[in-house]
Design goal:
alpha/beta; GMP Synthetase, Chain A, domain 3; five-stranded parallel sheet; 15 helices; 31% helix
């Protein structure tokens, strides 16, 4: 059974519960819910939300780490016809206040340990009327999540809403300025789920281990909605730990894992990692950031499971392309477009470029967002003649495989010549002493910008800045060689492991 893109998330969930009623749906810790049990819990929570006046047109923010409460709330919001607003659980008060204020959230569900941040943010934003806390004693100005479910009658039938209704507004991290809310409809998400199902051949026999944060679009679509609507068993972890993830794969005989490159690199570094039995894995999927060749080939050498690299921005629900499971996998490529998704490489005038030429990656398909919330000018600049201009730079080869060159905003211009950071990063990553690397531009009065490398050295390895520079001189043109190398203990990253290059630029002080 594939999810119909003319329906809603709630309707897809109801069909899944009817078809796979007694099959395991979600495991968290030692507790497992069947599809029927999960549906009953969702319906009961939806009834509770309805009693609070949350329904069609409402926007409910979720600030909960990975847990059954996140899954239940996400689906119950759809059940009542409202819109989900995921809030990363690592944000501070000001950032949370910006999101819930900008989106005009009517209600918010928050984990007990995050309640102080939520309370302060709600006071600043002044839009949230109802705060629901996952705690037995939520405080006099909040509602208990458990009591809300216990006291409500189930909402047996989902609200009747159009497939084009906003299902979720996800605030992207962005490269500059404050996060912006991408509006994804029910049709967008279900189209992406169905395309992913076809592209990577997901069936009800698959068992997922999920460590990606569900508040992120990658985690929500690939690690929550995809297994749920395909009848899979999803083993949800509270967060990522390399050792615990490997143990969960072995214990539950998982067939599928989705993650970011950092996760796979860390799983390779676990002591005696090759002692873990991961033979059940059909493959693992990597996205969210560039996958170094060394990680791709190294993980497969240790664990036997191939890493299938894919690509997609939040604005595309988010998956755009993936290397084929049954076809040719090209290392270094992010694969072929998903079914019903088109990719065009365009110049600055939106003219299509031929195969092999580098330009902006533009995407068209049913997975492309409706627009940015409360940002009409930005929407018009990003959605051009139905094409999503991603801001990513790449190329297509003669076979239609997509290669990411870099972020448009990350481009370094040295003396008028373009330098793509990823090329320099790939060069440095080939050094056996290097664990991680990120390359950014630093202002230079003479050259405009110069190349600066931030390098994390592997534990017990030795490496100097001069060795990095010398290595680059052997393999790169002189203008691409870093003029500054900073050896760091770690790189600043987002919640899903994407390097925050804007923060790294503050260390780059060459004049």
């Amino acid at each position: 059974m594939s999810p119909s893109i003319t329906s809603t998330l709630a309707e897809a969930g109801v069909r899944a519960a009817a078809r796979w009623a007694d099959r395991p749906a979600l495991t968290f810790g030692d507790a497992t819910s069947t599809y029927q049990e999960l549906h009953q819990q969702i319906a009961r929570l939806a009834g509770g939300l309805g009693k609070l006046g949350i329904g069609e047109g409402s926007r409910l923010a979720i600030m909960i780490p990975n847990s059954p409460e996140f899954v239940l709330t996400y689906m119950a919001v759809s059940h009542v016809g409202a819109t989900v607003v995921p809030v990363p659980s690592l944000l501070g008060v000001e950032e949370v206040a910006h999101i819930i204020g900008d989106v005009g959230a009517d209600a918010m569900v928050v984990a007990e340990e995050l309640a102080p941040i939520a309370h302060a943010a709600v006071q600043q934003a002044d839009t949230v009327e109802t705060l629901i806390v996952c705690a037995d004693a939520p405080g006099s100005d909040a509602v208990s999540f458990a009591e809300l479910m216990a006291s409500a009658d189930p909402l047996t039938e989902p609200a009747t809403i159009a497939a084009e209704t906003p299902a979720v507004i996800i605030y992207t991290s962005g490269t500059t300025g404050r996060p912006k809310g991408a509006v994804l409809t029910h049709r967008n998400l279900l189209a992406n789920v169905e395309a992913c199902r076809q592209a990577i051949s997901i069936s009800e026999e698959d068992i997922f281990v999920t460590a990606l944060p569900l508040f992120h679009s990658f985690g929500a679509t690939v690690s929550m909605l995809l297994p749920m609507f395909c009848g899979c068993h999803n083993v949800l972890l509270p967060g990522f730990s390399a050792l615990h993830t490997l143990q969960a794969i072995e214990r539950h005989r998982a067939t599928m894992v989705a993650g970011v490159p950092t996760m796979y690199a860390l799983m390779m570094q676990v002591k005696d990692a090759n002692a873990c039995d991961l033979n059940s894995l059909r493959f693992v999927v990597s996205g969210g950031a560039a996958l170094p060749d060394e990680v791709c080939l190294g993980f497969e050498a240790i664990h036997g499971a191939p890493i299938i690299e894919g690509y997609g921005p939040t604005e595309a629900s988010p998956v755009v392309s993936v290397n084929p499971i049954d076809g040719r996998r090209k290392i270094g490529s992010v694969g072929l477009p998903l079914p019903d998704v088109e990719i065009m490489i365009a110049d600055d005038d939106m003219v299509e470029l031929p195969a092999g030429d580098i330009g902006e990656i533009c995407v068209r398909g049913p997975n492309v967002m409706a627009g940015y919330h409360n940002a009409d000018d930005l929407t018009k600049a990003t959605l051009v003649n139905s094409w999503l201009c991603t801001g990513d730079v790449g190329k297509l080869d003669e076979d239609g495989y997509l290669y990411i060159v870099d972020r448009k905003n990350d481009l370094i211009i040295v003396g008028g010549i373009n330098v793509y950071p990823r090329e320099v990063e790939d060069c440095i990553a080939r050094m056996p002493q290097v664990a991680e690397v990120a390359v950014v531009g630093a202002p230079s009065e003479l050259r405009g910008e110069v190349v600066t490398a931030h390098v994390v050295v592997k534990e017990h390895a030795e490496c100097t800045a001069q060795q990095v520079i010398d290595h680059c001189r052997e393999h790169l043109a002189p203008y691409k060689v870093p003029k500054q190398v900073r050896l760091a203990d770690e790189l600043a990253k987002s919640a899903i492991g994407k390097v925050l290059k804007q923060e790294l630029k503050s260390y780059s002080d060459i004049k």
